[in-house]
Amino acid sequence: MQRVTTDPLAALAELPGVFEAVDSARAAVDGLLREPVLRRGRGEVRAESRRRAAWASACLAGVDVPAANFDAPFAADEPGRLSAASLRLAGEVRTLSDTWRRAPMQALARLHTLAAVDVTDPDALGRPRPDPAVAQRLAGLADMVTTSGASGVVVAAVVHGELLDLRPFGWGDELIARAAARLVLVSRGVDPDALTVPEEGLLELGRDGYDTALAAYQSGTPDGMAIWLIHNAAALQRGATIARNLCSARR
To answer: What is the pLDDT of residue 6?
Structure first.
């Protein structure tokens, strides 16, 4: 008898409201990718998207700075370290897409090294906390994302939620979770050039909404998972609109 396998991430797309939210997000990204200005100004749009993504992720981590003032070099305090780490992560996402497809754990180790290089003991860089439960969950996550046929929007949201819940490394875990979600969108071809700004979409939706959606995800219930997936899809949709506004500014 042929063995029947189930793709748990693909099944999440069938939860109430998720398909519609994912479809709207994909349509928004596709609209962005058709922007005529990208034929000649893709590099400029990508650079500004990267800067705004780093700024928004740092703000979500507690940094309080206007977007216009978010540029290196940063102060040698905690907000400055978070800002610098966020900018380094945003700059590496596209180059790690092939590594993510082949070896997600290796890509996560690189993200931690980038984030915590000025904060964490060099011997601990790229190494998850020495907890068997952490190692087991990360291995399960890596297996799911390399074998799942689910939409990249769904996979990105699950990676985002799992890393926020697990916090596998210590310092910078929140930044790493958002960078990893963006990395999924790039590697899965949803946003291959990292032009969208889903981090700013999350910021626009509000920290309270973010925390509430994460708590729903952590509940593990179907309704809670749906809330988290829909929230992430809405952030991506807003992030595509933000990037289209960047395109409009360059016409």
So the answer is: 80
